[in-house]
Amino acid sequence: MAAITRPREGRMLGGVCAALAQRFGTSATTMRIAFLASCLLPGPQFLLYIALWFLLPSGKQASPAW
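Request: output the structure for the sequence above.
Response:
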């Protein structure tokens, strides 16, 4: 199982939804909609998002071609 990392490209707020979308093989838009829909339910969704933002490492930046 590959490590989950927040991608450098395609992220909006912190890249958490983009990272989870890559891990589960879905689009980032679908993951963002699912997150927003889950916010209608009671629970610690925002706290979990913030925790993942700090805990998930950022993806590697592409090295220069020179």
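The CA atoms of residues 31 and 37 lie 10 Å apart.
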